[in-house]
Target: Aldose 1-epimerase
Amino acid sequence: MKLVQERRTEINGHPIIAFTLANDHGMEITCLNYGCMITSILVPDKNGNYENVVLAFDEFSSYLTNRPYLGTVIGRVAGRIKNSCFELNRKKYKLYENENKNHLHGGKKGFHHVIWQAAGFSKKEEVGVRFLHRSVDGEEGYPGNVDVQVTYTLNNQNELIISYHAISDQDTPLTLTNHTYFNLSGNAQRDILQHELKIKSDRFLPLDHEFIPTGEIKDVAGTPFDLRQGKTLKEVINSTDPQICFVGHGYDHPFVLNAHYEEEIVLFDPKSGRTLVVETDEPGVVVYTGNHLPNGEKMNGVLSRKYLGICLETQALPDAVHHPHFPSCILRAGEVYSSTTKYAFRVSYE
Model:
C-alpha cells in the first residue's frame, strides 16, 4: 500500500493537496482536499491496461466553477430542494437559490467548493484520506453547526469505500453523496452508451419539469426504469418515454433500492471488460447519465460532451423535506449521521 501527497496549487493562500492512494495490485485513486474531489481512478481492463475510469478536468482552474460537480462530495443536501425552502420544528428556512428558484447540491459553495482539512493514513491492507469540515450555522441558509468527516479508503480487493459521518448541534437536513462521473472505457475514449446498468430497484421517482420529484413513487415494471435485468444506456436514451425525454434523453432520476450490500448497482462495459459494483446503506441512488454535460471543456484529454460519464449518487431521496412519505433526511441535534458506499472494480475476461 502506498500514499503520496503532492501540492498542486493554492487558493487564496490555502494549499491544494493531491493525495494518491495505491494498493498492492496497481489500482490508484487520486483525490484533492478541494471539494474532496476524485480526479483519477486507475484500474485494469481485460488486457491489463490501467486507465482512468472517472471524468476529470485537464486544468485545475475549471474546478473553480465546476458546473458538472465532477468528482465532488455534495452537501449539506444532495439533489434539489423545491423553492429553496423548508420548514423544520415550526420554523421556516430559506436556502440559497442556485438553480432558478430552487436549491441544488448544497447551494453556491456547498461542500464542493470547500478546502477540507485532510490527512492521509496507511495500514497493511488499506490506505486512505480523512477529510474534515465544519459547516457553520446559517451556511447556505441551513440551521446548526455541523461537523463532517468523509473518509476515502482503498483496499487490496480493488474497492474504494467512502464513509460519511456528521454531527450537528441543531436539527438540520443532511444527506451526502459523491458526484463522480464514471466511464469504464478508460481515459474517456468512448462514451457510456454501450455500458450496461443493472439496479435492484422496483420503484423510481418521477420528476416534474424542474427535475424535482413529484412525490409519486412509481413501479418500474413496463418502463425504461426497469433495470432489474439490466439495460444498455443506449437503449434508455433512445426511449420515447416522457420522463426520459424532458431531462435531456437519459436518466436524472432517483431509484429506490430493494437491497443493500448485495451488489445492488452494477455498471459494466463489455468492450473493456471492466465492471463497477456499488453497494450502499442509503435508501436510494440518483442515476444521471450526463445528459447536460457541457460541450467543449477539456476532460481526460478529450472535449466533453453528452453521455461522456454516468453518476451513481447514493443518497436519501431528493426533496425529502417536502415529502413526509419519503425516508427522513433530518439529522437530529446530537445524533450521528453515518453512511457508507463501496465501489468495487472487477474485470471480466470473456
